[in-house]
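Here is one chain, start to finish.
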Amino acid sequence: MVLDKQKIVYISVSAVLLIAAIVLGIMLADSQKQNAEMQELFAIEKEELENEYSTFATQYDELQIRITNDSLLDKLEQEKLKTQQLLEELRQTKATDAAEITRLKKELKTVRAVLRSYVVQIDSLNRANEQLQKENKRVKARYSEATRQIDKITEEKENLSKKVTLASQLDAIGISFTPIKKNGKAARKIKDAKKLAIGFTIAKNITTETGEKAIYVRILKPDEEVLSKSNSDTFAYENQELQYSIKKYVEYTGEEQSVKVYWDVEEFLQAGTYKVFIFADGNMIGSNSFVVKK
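Its structure:
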């Protein structure tokens, strides 16, 4: 009877132990499964962190292209290097190192916040730069318009000045050329001439300054040589010195005034076309040509 009880107790203990072993096996299996699942999650999380760090490093490169500010470029370069360093640390960290992954995850938040602040700052700078460029274009347009207006006014002033100058210039009209014989009468042939009489009228001009005027008469022979008594008989005209034939001072009053000058013939004069040019105040005020016979 006692022996039967011992068998029963033995069988009961064995059953309990078996059940305990089964339960423990089941729990161990569950624990291993959970560990495997956790490792898989850590691996996925690590991969996601690596992708984010890589993306942020690339974004720093893109930001550097958008700006020209040297100081800001240096700061971005430092942050990019820091991000790349953290990425390298993450790649060398095992997926099972929960503490290190947690630290790098916190660092990622800081990197994200810093990057966001630079994005905002650069966008603000770019908007300000665009505004400055637009304002610069407006200023350049206004400057160009002002310059155009000034050039137009200057041109109009110059044209007006030229018109005033032309309007105030003396004008010699009715120019005549007459060979004179010894007896004072007009010679029909140039070989009989003892004098050459040149006559003209200075037209009325109330815009011209009145007073004494030096009148220069320049006579060109048919061979284009100037009749002149001396090589020193010259006057200034258009940045050069021209020889004159006859010089005469007249008192100009602004009214029409007749002038006559004479050239004493002391050289041989050939037949042909003679040209007469009259100058005053640095301007050529009249000219004419005349054909004379032998």
